Amino acid sequence: MPTAHKRLAYKRILIKLSGEALLGKDRTFGIDRAFLEYLAREIKDVRALGTEVAAVVGGGNIFRGVSDSAHGMDRVSADHMGMLATVINALALQDALERVGVFTRVLSAIEMREVAEPFIRRRAIRHMEKGRVAIFAAGIGNPYFSTDTAAALRAMEVKADIILKATKVDGIYDADPVKNPKARKFDRLTYLDVLKKGLKVMDATAISLCMDNGLPIIVYDLKRKGNLRRIALGEKVGTLVKE
Q: Are 105 and 135 in contact (CB under 8 A)?
């Protein structure tokens, strides 16, 4: 059984993973199993500290409702396809976690009892209290809402202390640091800063939800080993968005 660490900064966290994160380094479609195993070990490490963990996974590595591949499709149909893509990713993450010995439950906003539990708030909280990682799939079950919004909503429903937005860069910048080497990194921002500057952290609906409920967000580099553990222990990592 995990034991709580004296310096634990967050008791319960929700990790927001984009579908693209599961591509790893070289893929343009699908799931990189080696990267998924790395991710599972990072989550196992933070679980061992006593932190309760939930995750929301996107589906962009398979299908995005607002992408070029959905061009010309009915938006509702395309979004439903995107939601099903998140279920595939959630099952893949569950498999990777259980391979490294972490008990996991997938809870879907779209009912599909053969592969996942339906999302029930109290059940999700109970799973986390029992030390299981709760993976929330299918967004919020409705079209026109992103998995960013789903992450904000689920985090509030299960009373998470913080959302950890896992990205390819080590925080929020005033420009794309990959394209612009002079891009400036922010250590801390308010929700209004993010909205006014139009920073691509999470969509405006998700940021507004977090702002209205005082839920902090940390944007961090997913690929740097140990970052998740450092955040759980209260070290300064990435960019903090807070009032």
A: yes
The answer to whether 11 and 194 have CB atoms below 8 angstroms apart is: no
92 within domain boundaries = yes
pTM beyond 0.70: the answer is yes
Considering the domain boundaries, does residue 2 fall inside one? no
CATH number at residue 220: 3.40.1160.10
At 240, give phi and psi (nearest 5°).
-95, 130
AA letter at 240? L
Distance of CA 178 to the CA centre of its chain: 22
- Paired tokens of 130: 């029992």
Element of type H or E holding 236: none
Average pLDDT of adjacent 10-residue blocks, the chain of 243 residues: 67 96 86 96 97 96 79 91 96 98 98 97 98 98 96 98 95 90 94 93 95 97 96 96 95
190 neighbors 242 (Cβ within 8 angstroms): yes
Instruction: Tell me what pLDDT residue 68 has.
Output: 66
Spatial separation of the C-alpha atoms in residues 68 and 63, rounded to whole Å: 10
- Tell whether 217 is covered by a domain: yes
Rounded Cα distance, 31 and 168, in Å: 16
In a domain, 79, yes or no: yes
Site of tokens 């002079």: 182
